[in-house]
Automatic annotation (TrEMBL):
It catalyses: [GlcNAc-(1->4)-Mur2Ac(oyl-L-Ala-gamma-D-Glu-L-Lys-D-Ala-D-Ala)](n)-di-trans,octa-cis-undecaprenyl diphosphate + beta-D-GlcNAc-(1->4)-Mur2Ac(oyl-L-Ala-gamma-D-Glu-L-Lys-D-Ala-D-Ala)-di-trans,octa-cis-undecaprenyl diphosphate = [GlcNAc-(1->4)-Mur2Ac(oyl-L-Ala-gamma-D-Glu-L-Lys-D-Ala-D-Ala)](n+1)-di-trans,octa-cis-undecaprenyl diphosphate + di-trans,octa-cis-undecaprenyl diphosphate + H(+). It comes from the Bacteria. In the N-terminal section; belongs to the glycosyltransferase 51 family. In the C-terminal section; belongs to the transpeptidase family. The gene is pbpC. The keyword Cell membrane does not apply. Residues 45-216 form the Glycosyl transferase family domain. This is peptidoglycan glycosyltransferase. Keywords: Carboxypeptidase, Glycosyltransferase, Hydrolase, Multifunctional enzyme, Protease, Transferase. Its EC number is 2.4.99.28. It holds the Pfam family Transpeptidase. InterPro entries: Beta-lactam/transpept-like, Glyco_trans_51, Glycosyltr_51/Transpeptidase, Lysozyme-like_dom_sf, PBP_1c, PBP_C, PBP_transglycosylase, PCN-bd_Tpept.
């Protein structure tokens, strides 16, 4: 009697000295933007243990679990005396253990601190420690927290622990909504997880499920017809692989923050899955050693909604371990739109401006079109849609390759050049390096009205690098580009006009590109060999563009519309353009072309102080006919024949001045306007010719 009393006091006293329960090790989880599982990582010993909470699991499954395992769970304080007395009576009657009398809380205590020893005394001692620990758990945790621990730690066979891991492994889904058959199986398995493993003992698993259904038949949780239907449902005879969506992005997130248990990326799981399926299908048609990658970006935020880093992360023959979305490659012609965008912004060209596509030489550099043919006189819009090389280089010479590279870098997407090299005219045709995700971010900037966001990989950061947009080009230039690119001829068997897009092929057929956007999203596609070896005949239009169009088709029924034209946009025919914009006249290397205008003063890049009383002198040499000056791409004043202009800047900061003659030839400089100490600027300036 004294021993029994002491044991009772030892149990009851447990509440007064209840230590916090140990924190179980959990699998690291990478989730999508909505909290859906992209990829879990096994523990160091190979076990899968996914954290579960009672509120995130099917309610009827929880009710069945409590009714089957511990029907007084919500009333007792960790130990159920009625269940213990019943278990003792059954043991005395049958001479063996029929039921253990353990509550769910006692089972959690055992799972947190596994018992040791096999003898009767060891088992009794372990049972007493479980009872004491259960009382302590009830003192420190709520009932739902205790249920969450059980749902996280319960064994389900092999290296599967917890209801979430079991549901994903056996049913391929989270346990938020379970059928009656699935719920009954998850209730039955922890009782004998190895002997009832569905993937090894499906018949035993089925019988255990039927026993659960039979025992709970009178609880009112389900009716007889539903139970009979559940009993006939097939038992999953194999385990499914754990999800591995966005494998490289998930690995990068874990590597970036190794101590964080749950990572939440900006990726959309449904879009990621569809694009990965598309990549797996199309890669089989591309030939041995060829892979592909895709990136999808939200235009308005820069969120990376999908990142397909390769056709198969486990395919060593296609360098599956390499994240091809971040690899630096030659972009071919995909940078051409940004040349045209700067020309539009400077006011030296308009989509309807006529330009010559004919042989030209730029020093020792002589660009040629892909088909070795020339189109003659075309509109700037047509030159972009047909991806003509000579017009692109002519415009790049006008806007400046260094300025192009600087503008892309200022937007957050720097071009890669060998150490010590500066951008030259070859940049416009792919003579530079860039990654697929950077290219996607740049095109998203076009779609976003000229404002580019740095790519945002995750949505669980307090501070992100994708919140502030940076100016890539003017809204008018971006709108002109979008309207031109939506008219690019579609690949074979695809409908034109659905998306704005551009293709590219690097020198030697090493990289095939296609980047397209609608009013909401941008998708970039790369096809090639990860080792950089050429693939003869592989071009962007035939290898990458069909994949781009298929990607949009799988994701959206109807592409999102583009925004309205900016108020300053000039949507008109060539004949109605101002005379300087009707034809782009400067063409290097062509006999008979007049020398274009040159801004002799101030020099490009100069920093000048604004004087309210003295306007700044702008001196121009050369040029044909009347001259027009553009301030940040906007005509300022009426055309004049004078070679000296006086400009009164009324604001501070950087400004782009462009002078164009009557033949369309132009020159541009960038100035920094600063105020004298203590003087504040105003937002406008005046220009006059003398």
């Amino acid at each position: 009697m004294l021993v029994a009393g002491g044991g009772y006091a030892w149990l009851v006293g447990a509440r007064a000295a209840a230590p916090p329960p140990p924190e179980p090790a959990l699998s690291v989880e990478v989730l999508d933007r909505e909290g859906r599982l992209l990829r879990p990582f096994a523990l160091a010993d190979g076990r899968w243990r996914l954290k579960a909470q009672a509120g995130e699991v099917d309610r009827r499954f929880l009710d069945m679990l409590v009714a089957y395992e511990d029907k007084r769970f919500w009333q007792h304080g960790g130990v159920d005396p009625v269940a213990l007395l019943r278990a003792a009576g059954q043991m005395a009657l049958h001479g063996r253990i029929v039921s253990g009398g353990s509550t769910l809380t006692m089972q959690v205590a055992r799972l947190l601190e596994p018992r040791e020893g096999r003898g009767l005394a060891a088992k009794l001692g372990a049972k007493l420690r479980e009872m004491r620990r259960a009382i302590q758990l009830e003192a420190r945790l709520t009932k739902r927290e205790i249920l969450g621990l059980y749902l996280t730690l319960a064994p389900y066979g092999g290296n599967i622990e917890g209801a979430r891991a079991a549901s994903v492994a056996y049913f391929g889904k989270e346990p938020r909504r379970l059928t009656l058959a699935e719920a009954a199986l998850l209730v039955a398995l922890p009782q004998a997880p190895e002997s009832r493993r569905p993937d090894r003992q499906p018949e035993r698993a089925g019988r255990a499920r039927e026993a659960v259904l039979a025992r709970l038949g009178a609880t009112g949780l389900f009716d007889t017809p539903e139970a009979e239907f559940a009993a006939r449902a097939p038992v999953p005879a194999r385990r499914l692989a754990m999800p591995m969506l966005a494998a490289h992005a998930a690995e990068a997130a874990r590597r970036e923050r190794p101590s964080v248990p749950v990572h939440r990326l900006a990726i959309e799981a449904s879009a990621q899955m569809r694009l990965e399926e598309l990549a797996a299908e199309r890669v089989r048609e591309l030939g041995a050693g060829v892979s592909l990658a895709m990136v999808m970006v939200d235009n308005a935020t820069g969120d990376v909604l999908a990142r397909v880093s390769g056709a198969d992360p486990l395919d060593a023959s296609r360098a599956g371990a390499v994240d091809l979305t971040r690899a630096v490659r030659s972009p071919g012609s995909t940078l051409k739109p940004f040349i045209y965008g700067l020309a539009f912004e400077d006011g030296i060209a308009h989509p309807e401006t006529l330009i010559e596509d004919r042989p030209a030489r730029f020093g020792a550099y002589r660009p040629r079109n892909f088909d070795r043919d020339y189109q003659g006189t075309v509109s700037v819009k047509q030159a972009l849609q047909l991806s003509l090389n000579v017009p692109a280089v002519v415009l790049l010479q006008a806007v400046g390759p260094q300025r192009l590279a600087s503008r892309l870098g200022q937007a957050g997407f720097a071009l890669k050049l060998p150490p010590g090299e500066i951008p030259g005219l070859a940049v416009g045709l792919g003579g530079v390096g860039i990654s697929l995700d950077a290219l996607a971010g740049l095109y998203a900037g076009i779609a976003n009205g000229g404002e580019a966001h740095r790519l945002r990989e995750r949505v669980d950061s307090a501070v992100t690098d994708g919140e502030e947009a940076r100016r890539l080009m003017s809204p008018v230039a971006a709108w002109y580009l979008a309207q031109a690119l939506v008219g690019t001829p579609a690949p074979r068997n695809e409908r034109a006009g659905r998306i704005a897009f551009k293709t590219g092929t690097s020198f030697g057929y090493r990289d095939a590109w296609a980047v397209g956007f609608d009013g909401r999203r941008t998708i970039a596609v790369w096809v090639g060999r990860p080792d950089g070896q050429p693939v003869p005949g592989m071009i962007g239009r035939e290898a990458a563009a069909p994949i781009l169009f298929e990607a949009f088709a799988r994701l959206v029924t109807r592409p999102a519309p583009f925004g309205p034209a900016p108020r300053e946009a000039l949507n008109t025919r060539n004949i109605d353009l101002p005379p300087p914009l009707r034809r782009f006249g400067r063409m290097a290397g062509q006999v008979g072309m007049a020398d274009g205008p040159r801004i002799a003063f101030p020099p490009d890049g100069a920093s000048v102080e604004r004087d309210a009383d003295e306007p700044l002198a702008l001196k121009v040499s050369g040029g044909t006919g009347r001259l027009t000056v553009f301030v940040d791409g906007v005509p300022s004043g009426t055309p004049a024949s004078a070679a000296a202009f006086f400009w009164q800047p009324a604001g501070t900061g950087f400004v782009r001045l462009t002078v164009m003659d009557a033949a369309g030839a132009s020159d541009s400089i960038t100035l920094r306007i600063r105020e004298p100490a203590g003087v504040a600027g105003t937002p406008a300036g005046q220009l006059s010719g003398r």
